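--- STAGE predict ---
source: upstream dedup step, 1 unique chain passed
mode: sequence only
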Amino acid sequence: MGTVTRRTALKASALFGAVALSSRALMPTAAAAEQAKTPTKGTPSPAPATHYGPASATGSVSEVYQKARQVLYPICRVCPQCDGVACAGEFPGIGGLDSGMSFQNNFSGLQQVRLKLRPLSGDKKPDTSTVIFGQKLSFPAMAAPIGGLAENFPHLHDMSEAGYFDAIIGGCVDAGTMGSVGDIQSDPYDVTKARYDVVARYPGKVIAGIKPRLNPNLISIIRLAEAANAFMITIDIDSAGRGWMDTSGASAVEPKTVAQLREIVRATRIPVIVKGITTPEDALLAGEAGVSGICVSNHGGRVLDHTPGTAEVLPAIADKVKGKMVIFVDGCVHYGDDVLKYVALGADCVMVGRHIIRAAFGGGRPGVGLFMKTMRDELEAAMVVTACPDVRSIGRQILA
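--- STAGE serialize ---
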C-alpha cells in the first residue's frame, strides 16, 4: 500500500464531502426547490447562472461553500482552509504552479502573523470604512480581478462569463465595496467588449484587470474601461513571464519597462495599478512610472514557484512607498482577521481572489455579498479587541 500523504487525504476527504453533499439538500433556496421537482439520473449538472446558490443572503458562508463544493469539484475541493496543498500543481485550474509552494507560502506566511489581544482598550463600534481614490468603501477589501473562467473551469458550461462577473460585481457593490473583471488576452475583441458591457451596469464600482498586452492593444482595452466608467485599472505584469502566454499578434503579452508603464499612465485618467510587485525595488520603479498604486502579489502562486508569501514581503515594500502611492495586496484573504493583518503590515486595501470565486459559484450575487459582509463583520470584531477605533489606526503596534 502506498504512503498516504496529506494531499491525497485531502483529495479523498473532498471527494467524500462532494458525494455526501450531493445526496441531500444544502439550503432552503428557490433554486434547490426547483431542482428537487425534476428527477435526475447520476450527478446533477450545475444550475444555470441565474439559479446559482441561495436566492437571498440569509444563510451562512459555510452553506455557500457547501454549494460551491458541489459545483466546482474536482477542480476546486473548497477545502476548509484554502492552503494550496490539495490542488498543488493543478494549473490550469485553481492550484499553484508546479510544486504549489508559492500559493502555500501565501497561506503560511499570513498564518504566521500574530495579533495582540487588547480587549480593555478597544472601541465598542470601530469604523471599518476607508477611502480609496475618493471612493468610500465599507471596509478595506475588494474583489481581485480574475478571468479565465473557461480555461480554469471547463466543465462549468452553465455559468456564463457575464453571469460570473455580474455575481462578483453585484455582490461586492451590495457589500459596499468594489467588484472586478479579469482579462484573458486570447479572447477576441467582441468577447472583451461584452465583458465591459457588464462593467457599464455598475459605473464607478468595478476594477478592470488587463493583461500586459502590447501597449497599443492594452490602451485599446483601457478605452473600453473608460467608456464603461471603471473605477481603476490593474495590470498584472507578472503574467507576461509564463511560457504558455502568446508573444506575438493581437494577443501578445510582454514584460513592461518603466517607459512603457509611463506611456500607459499618461494614456488615461483612470488610476493605474501595477499588480505583481514583490520587492521594494520594483515598487520604486513603479513609482517612477507614475502609477497610482501597486498590488503586492505573486499572482496566487501561479507564475513562479518558490516565491515568498505576500505577507512576508509587504512590510519592506510599505517602508519604501507607503503614503506615496496606494498599496494593495492579495494572497489567501479569507477572514476579517486577514484584512486586519495585511493592513497592519502596510496595505491600504486587500484584494480577495479564490474565496470570492467560491462565493460566486456557491451563492451567486447574494453569496458574494454575504461573504464580503461577513468578512467586514469579522474585521469589526477583530478591531474591537485589538484597540483599533478606525482603519487609520491599524498599524504594526497591533502585531505580536
